[in-house]
Structures are given as C-alpha cells and as structure tokens.
Amino acid sequence: RGARQAPLRKAINYALDRHALVKAHSHLSVRRTDRLLPASLSRSRGLYPLGGADPITAQRWLARAAHRPQTLTLYTANFAFAFRTAEVFAANMKQLGIEVTPKYFDFATLSTKLNTKGEPWDVAWLPWGAWYADPAGAVLPLLRGSRYEARINAANRATGAAARAKSWADLETDLMRNDPPVAVYADVTSLILVSRSFG
Length: 199
What we know:
By secondary structure, the protein is an alpha/beta fold. The chain is built from eight helices and five strands; from the N terminus they run ααβαβαβαβαααβ. The radius of gyration is 17 Å and the shape is globular.
C-alpha cells in the first residue's frame, strides 16, 4: 500500500506477460492492454510491454521498492481461465524471486472476501466493467474510497467532451506511469448478436 510501494506495482506491471495472460482466455474474448481505462474510453498512450514480460526493467523497479515481498497470496475466481492466468502470473512473479500462492473462490465468495477487512490477500484478480460511454463509469467503481479519489473527482468535474477526454487521459497516464493502482492485462471484447428483425 501507499506511494512508497509504487515501485513494486510498477515492477509487477513490467513483469506481466500480457500475451500469455490473454492466451489463457477463449479466442477473441479479450485483447491486450496496459491501460486503466477501456481502450474505447482512453486517449492515453501505453506504458508497459504488451508482447511479453520485461523482467530486466521489472527487477530495476523492484530494487526501488520500500518492501520487496518473497511471497504473494493471490485471490482469484474459480473460472477455467483463472486457473491458467494464475499459473502465468505465478511464473511472471517467479522471475522477480516472488512465490505466488493462488487461492480460488466462486465469484460471490471472492467478492465478499475482497470486501472483508483483514482478509489476508496481497493480490486479487478483479474484473470490472464500464457500462457508460464515459471514463467515470470505469474508474469510479474501482477506486472509490481509495487515496486516488480526490484526483478522480477533480477529473470527473471537467465538462465538455474534449476537456473530459484530456482530463481523464492525463490522470490515467499519470497514475499508470507514477503510481499504478492496478496491473491491467486485457479488455473484454463482448460479442452481441442481434437479429435483423430487431430493427
């Protein structure tokens, strides 16, 4: 937690093999990204590797962390792809000398545990969605109540399409570059088939 651990979160972002993580999902169901916002709502530029892990840069950032853990407990869902992504994540962290212990739960239990104070997890897999055509729909549910909230609220007060897009892009770039709250690896691609008779 805290800004002093930003180097650890940056190390994790560099150590992720996003290509391998995406391959754990069904074909065309997700696409690689390193952005906080879904691609359709983002105007920021990518910062972290999409083609594979960058363990050398990850090690450099890990060396700057105030606390360098030897183990991490991962809480994740018991979906089929989650077992595979947990294996990839564990292999990625092993390059940093960190052992990962995954724990799998049905999604309702996972949600409850992640909201339980004192629950002993270090890293969690957490899907979230943006159902509105505005960045606030993606970021506010994820980071509400966090130390980032004041900055998020400031960005959210911007009015006008251009001003809002710039405000959110600036915030996204700054957070992901300097103090990443998450390590993102994919956007979900939802395919919806609609009959012609729908109109």
